[in-house]
Amino acid sequence: MSVMSAVDYARVFGTCGNCDKPRVSYSWCVDCNVEYFEENFKNWSSDDPRIDNMIKNTQKTAKEYIGYVEWIDISKFELLKNTGKRGAFSSTYSAVWMEGPQHKWDEYAEVWIRKGPTDVILRRLDRSWDLTDEFIDRLNKYARFLSDNAFAECFGLTKDETSCIMLVYKHYNKGDLYTFFDNYDEFFGWGEIVEILSTISAGIYRIHELGLVHGNLHGGNIMIENDGGMLDARITDAGLHGPYDVYSEDIHGVVPFVAPEVLKGSKTTQASDIYSFGMIMWVLSAGVRPYHHRPHDRVLINEIIGGLRPRPVKDTPPLYARLMERCLRENPLERPLISELYDLTEKWAGATCNYPEPSEITEEFDKADMAKFDEIKYRHTFIHHRAVYHSRNLRTI
Predict the structure, then answer these.
(1) Rg of the chain's alpha carbons, rounded to an integer?
(2) Which residue intervals define the domain Protein kinase in the entry (predicted)?
(3) Model confidence over 68-89: pLDDT tens digits?
(4) Who contacts 121 (Cβ-Cβ below 8 Å, separation ≥6)?
């Protein structure tokens, strides 16, 4: 991969009107923006020096305008409403951020121009008024994934009236993967499937290449947006699930997406992320939630440990089904690495774009698309009242 020189940056992004140095991205001069952030440090505080330091570090190392988070006072939000969605240790709210995120740097006035009223989702970390050092350590490790192209965009952090921390995310107009399929009645072809899958694999690749683990990958943590007719997928909750006020070795997750070795008591690993990725592959191909027709109870857990897996749906391309089944293998060592998944899904995305070069991959997906179109039907499906698709403590089941 070639490295851009200062001349290249200046040619592509121009030079800063204030210091005349090359910008490194759209409207972004590293020196001037970092100086602005540092001068503003005195104007805000979360009342927790550990949180303040994490936010400051993202701002001092930001290379573009989406590469950092900020502290946002709770008074800046209006129409705050509990959505009713929750996980084992979090609850979700919708709101309108009246000022909106910093959108463009005015180099001559040396001020940020904000976007204005912006729909946001606030994820409240329950019982986070007394954060453990272990969670702060996780937050620092995973902070780079709060604002990154493959991840749900996190604008910043705030604190509610009970002093619980809330993460402020961009609102994605199609919701999570479950909500998307619950409400999507149009034809959903293999081109869209592999495009979403390639984005997810890119995000997991970035986590794994740093030696980290997502640990809670499931349909509720994949956000979908329809942007001008193009579907975009983003990952959320990377490394940040679990209790925030006490250390715990309990198992938390969504039963169908948890690898069998984790259900038996092992810690989450990169290989268990791959198992969860395989289940995401099944959801995308089937258009429904896994094991939606039955309780997610100890019986299901024992069956998954014993080898139960969802079967590939009819007319799934064989190359897709083979990769999915490898991801779902019992032995973690027999599952593919994320580097292989990333390379394959990128190749598939290229083979299913609007004007692909003819290939066996293209033919296989085209054939599957024709079969899929012939059998298109509404995906609204009965969901058993004890089928649970939010994260919870699995030791209590």
Answers:
(1) 22
(2) 78-349
(3) 899 999 999 999 999 988 777 8
(4) 83, 92, 93, 94, 95, 168, 169, 170, 171, 172
Distance CA 212, CA 142 (A): 8
CA-based max dimension of the chain: 66
pLDDT band at 2 (very low <50, low <70, confident <90, very high): very low
Q: Are 238 and 193 in contact (CB under 8 A)?
A: no
* Domains of the chain, CATH where assigned: 23-170 (3.30.200.20), 177-396 (1.10.510.10)
Provide the b/e sequence for 220-231 (b: ≥16 CB within 10 Å): bbbbbbeeeeeb
- The string of pLDDT tens digits covering residues 284-302 is 999 899 999 999 999 999 9
Q: Are strands 70-71 and 154-159 parallel, antiparallel or unpaired?
A: parallel
Pairing, β 118-125 against β 222-227: unpaired
Say which residue the tokens 């701002």 belong to.
59
Q: How many residues does the chain have?
A: 397
Tokens of 366: 């085209």
Identify the band that residue 249 occupies on the pLDDT scale cut at 50, 70 and 90.
Answer: confident
Crossing angle of helices 270-286 and 190-208, rounded to 10°: 170
- Output the six-digit token pair for 208: 């794994």
Q: Is the pTM of this model over 0.85?
A: yes
